Predict the structure.
Amino acid sequence: MPLRITPLLVGLLLTVACIPAYAQTDDDVWDELLQSLADEAVATGDDTDALEMQIDDLNDLREHPLDLNSATKQQLLRLPFIDDAQAEAILDYRTRRGQLLSVGELLLAEGIGQHEVKLLKLVSVVMPVTEAINKAKLKHEFTARLDVPLYSRAGWSWGRGIANRWRYVIDRGHWEAGLRGERDSGEPMFTRRIPLWDAMGGHVMLSDVGIVRNAVVGDFKVAFGEGLVVNQGFGFGKMLTHFWRMGASLRPHRSTDEFNFMRGGGAELDFGRGWRLTAFASVRKVDATINPDNSISSVNSSGLHRTEAELAHRRTVWSNTAGTDFGWQGRGIGVGLTAMYQHYDHALSRGNALYRQIYPQGYHFGNVGLHYAFRRSWLVVRGETARSFAAGGGGWATLNRAAVRFGPNTQLSAIQRFYSYHYYSPHARAYGDNSRVQNESGICLLAEAERVGPFSLSAYFDLFYSPWPRYTMTHASTGWEAMASVGFTQRQHRLLLRFRTKSKEHSDLRAQDYHLRATYSWRVAAEWNLQCMAFIHRHHTIVANSNGYAFMPRIDFSPKRQPVAASLSAVIFSTSDYDSRIAVYEPTLFRSFGLQQFYGRGQRVAATMRVKLGRHFALQAKLGVTHYSDRDVISSGITQISSPWKSDVQLLLRYH
């Protein structure tokens, strides 16, 4: 019998959350960051599983905060929003002033603004020296999660629909080791093909020992420059461009992402006086669709292996990768050279579709990129220019940024990119409107003012062009996107309005999307927060219009010294179709991204509880219930649910 949402409960939530009548807390900043990622998922069509892996990486930073009184430059550079010059500025300030008393004190450091401080408060702490010494003790962390559906899907039994994942990490400061496993809903387990978990892996890492910044054996991620050659690190799209920075990064792969990582070994070496070298090599099998002529139609990134067809693509192709990055960083100046080689044991094939005629073909691919940065207290210029090499030729790509800071709270930025339709890198991820670093030119202008009295302001305008026909197109295409956001904060109250519009061609028709999100928060007391969100989405073409609306109240209880915390939220939504869908972030379990995308008409209630069991154990539970009032079944094919109700229970046990 499915769980039912009572009208009384929904009405209570709507009434309480909108009681009329706030410096932002860390939780407020975190929630706004995650809701911005949810907005980005709808705007770009990004894979939500990939976004969840990004959140997992951010959770790593948040759950293992960096002590700013003892952090080295290498440790500071592991934060995605701190570049080399800012890391030097933090160390210089600490040398001149002694121990920090608060994170906010860094506003006095050169090149550190309100935005960096707000994000640093999420992932760092300030500890006295005596406490920092105790921090180097041996630590263990184990998490295990179980997702239990209270329904059955058409493609598999109820028991097979239970998903689970686990992770264990042991950390001693200068070394770390970890193991992980995951099974998605619908995937087999304890079979000949998959004897244990569908995805398993691990790593061993040595860090900050002699000239070794990082050395990893096992599963790891790499990122260099602006991501034109390789970027398996952070990348959050247009609305969060401040997360992108120039630099080099090699770190363990701790999340359950089954595609975006390397398997082998790598090391970052620091030779002093600004010189550094990173080298890595990877040998692993990836999922791919094999044509009858033994060529590769596509490399699959979903990591799903539920059906015979999906299992047939599992780990069918060897992917061998090797690369290096050599660079120098001086006082506000940096330069680096990246080279990468990629080999598949089956040849990539373009196929016959028009949009695929610019896709790569062959076995061997190479890339070389030069990345550079120049920084002063008021000016930042950085970028990367890269060249690709392949049997059928190659192309150029360049991405350049400039930011002028008028104070700790205000800056103007410009981002230019040119990605030739002949350019290809299998591991590239960079700023742009398309998911591929290929076939796109554009320029984006951004303005941010963190504090103008009680207001915070941000806006951008992005213009882009694709010379080769994209998927569903028969000709070149253009588009533009604009966003404006204003926040008002006064004592316990905060109001945020964000409007975004985008014009882009699809199926040779121009579509215009309008998104409006309003968020009101009221910090009733230190442990109680009430929030009310409203969403409007209008999708317009010359053929038809569709409209979407959603309303979401939410109550959070998070006492500082009590073992129990809880969240309760409700959503009422109504959209014409999928084109006017609404994306909502709701509180969820540790290391998860609570993104919900709604289309049609219905309601949802979600309740989350977190309980501390002594000093080291914590238990989290979440119940989510969704009801659709415009259909009798949910989804289709193997994922079809023969009911308008969908209820899930998620459980997570953590030891740390």
User: Anything to note?
Assistant: The first strand starts at residue 66 and ends at 67. DSSP finds eight helices and 31 strands in the chain. The mean pLDDT is 86. The CA atoms of residues 349 and 361 lie 5 Å apart.
